[in-house]
Write a structure and sequence with these properties.
This protein is of the alpha+beta class. 23% of the residues lie in helices and 35% in strands. Strands 6, 7, 8, 9, 10 and 11 form a 6-stranded mixed beta sheet that branches. A 3-stranded antiparallel beta sheet has the order 1-4-5, with helices on one face. It has a two-stranded antiparallel sheet with strand order 2-3. Strand 2 and strand 3 form a beta hairpin. The N and C termini lie far apart (34 Å). 38% of the residues are buried.
Length: 168
């Protein structure tokens, strides 16, 4: 009843000082979910679409009785360094090459919102949904970081397809 993903290519952003992007898209929907990401690498957009379709949507239906309608995005491309770990603070984040997406929560088809900050530690179905969706992100992304990783990720999931593998 919907396309797996709706994406439109964007012109490459010249790499300068470790920031820029190549082969990227503007992703407006994936897995039947509105996804407001202005710039994402094609690899990242494909991983996001597959995770939303094959993991997040079935989980939401099973645990919450509703499909996910949209993600609450905290962005994708941002020319910046890694945050939250002083050992890595001198290195560019995967956001600097549009190879990462941050998700603060989800809005369900009935309008309910499930927020990482407000529901992560909940023992109810919302918390179970978030923890399981995060755990199921690991096969799709090289890094899937959440509130249990560090304080910088207390309110969102950081998902990326960069060179380092970390699921936490």
């Amino acid at each position: 009843p919907y396309d797996l993903a709706a994406a439109r290519s964007v012109l490459d952003g010249a790499m300068q000082d470790g920031c820029g992007w190549v082969n990227a898209v503007r992703l407006t929907s994936a897995g039947g979910v509105r996804t407001p990401y202005d710039k994402l690498t094609c690899e990242m957009a494909a991983a996001l679409a597959l995770w939303l379709e094959h993991e997040v949507q079935p989980l939401a239906t099973e645990l919450l009785g509703q499909r996910v309608a949209s993600v609450r995005s905290l962005g994708s491309y941002a020319c910046r360094n890694i945050r939250g770990n002083p050992l890595w603070g001198h290195r560019r984040s995967q956001h600097a090459t549009a190879n990462a997406a941050d998700i603060a929560g989800f809005t369900l088809a009935d309008g309910r919102t499930i927020g990482v900050r407000s529901h992560w530690r909940s023992e109810g179905p919302e918390g179970h949904f978030l923890r399981e969706a995060h755990a199921r992100a690991c096969p799709y992304f090289r890094a899937a970081l959440g509130p249990d990783y560090n304080a910088a990720h207390r309110d969102h999931f950081h998902l990326d397809r960069g060179p380092f593998s970390r699921c936490r």
